[in-house]
Design brief:
By secondary structure, the protein is α+β, with helices and mostly antiparallel strands. The protein contains eleven helices and seven strands. α4 packs across α5 and α5 packs across α8. The protein is globular and about 55 Å long. It binds zinc ion.
Length: 297
């Protein structure tokens, strides 16, 4: 179902609420993701949860009359641009994920067909190509995070991975913390605008090692700081993260309420009954969740 422009600065998903103003397109698409992923028409309430974890930007390059959005792992959004090509937008980092990346399954094949310049290296010919590339991005990101967590605290490679976990805005904020000597080093012609001194990168890496860990369940492997914060929020509130990583479905909410009530009621009885109760519930609910990882939106 497409997001339509229905007036100056106004957007609507299907026949849902019309959003107007600076943030309208993002809100309309968010509502679309929530509705299509959950079947929940009142998704608007869930979008407006009092967290800022949904404050992502959407690029203007996406076609306003997109036929479809596909959400992968809760942070990689696939859709078409105005030329009809498929693109992959990283919601958490605010960047395109192009095939100009040596580990992309299309790095070699696309170079034979297209120039290695923007916007070409952000564009995929088919949805299948974009999906295959996106799966590789998601998998590699998680592998890197595990490597970083298990690695040496002072490793510079580790601090590179840590840097990849934060948004552009946070990166700029980090650059503001450079001292006068580092500022001078940053002006060296061989250094790019994005250069961040080793000291600050290591500092960030050590900070993130603490910040990423879920205070409720202890999980530490997330594709980004924002993804970690979303998990922390849901884990504290419901004891579990939504299966689409963004919104609780009505069925999930019902299930968690049921398990919670059951837990309280049975806390004096044998735990085996409680565990089998959860297993039964999960078994029943599983088919509904299976396809929600890369749902068509
Ligand atoms: Zn947790």
């Amino acid at each position: 179902m497409p997001v339509r422009k229905v007036g100056k600065n106004c957007y609507q998903w299907g026949n849902q609420k019309v959003y107007c103003g600076t943030d309208a397109k993002r809100k309309a698409i968010l509502q679309g993701i929530a509705i299509e992923n959950t079947g929940w028409k009142e998704a608007e309430n869930e979008i407006d949860v009092k967290t800022n974890h949904y404050s992502f930007v959407l690029p203007a390059e996406f076609d306003e009359n997109n036929e479809a959005f596909y959400l992968v792992s809760g942070y990689l959004l696939i859709s078409t641009d105005k030329e009809g090509k498929w693109r992959v937008w990283d919601l958490d980092k605010g960047e395109w994920r192009g095939w100009n990346w040596i580990d992309s399954p299309f790095y070699k094949a696309y170079q034979k067909k297209y120039p290695l310049t923007p916007p070409h290296y952000f564009q995929f010919d088919t949805l299948q190509d974009a999906e295959k590339h996106t799966s590789k991005v998601a998998l590699t990101r998680l592998k890197n995070v595990i490597k970083w967590i298990e690695g040496d605290e002072d490793s510079l490679h580790g601090s590179d991975i840590a840097l990849s976990l934060i948004s552009k805005g946070k990166r700029s904020a980090l650059r503001m913390k450079m001292d006068s000597k580092e500022k001078e080093m940053a002006r060296h012609p061989n250094r790019s605008q994005r250069w961040i001194p080793d000291r600050l990168r290591k500092e960030l890496s050590n900070e993130l090692r603490k910040q990423m860990v879920c205070p409720t369940c202890g999980e530490a492997v997330f594709p980004s700081l924002l993804a970690a914060q979303r998990h922390h929020f849901y884990c504290e509130k419901y004891g579990k993260q939504p299966s689409n990583y963004l919104f609780m479905t009505p069925l999930e909410l019902l299930m968690f309420d049921f398990v919670k009530t059951k837990k309280e009621a049975e806390s004096f009885q044998t735990p085996i009954i409680f565990i089998s109760g959860i297993a039964l519930l999960l078994g029943m609910a599983l088919p509904y969740f299976l396809d929600s990882r890369a749902d068509k939106v």
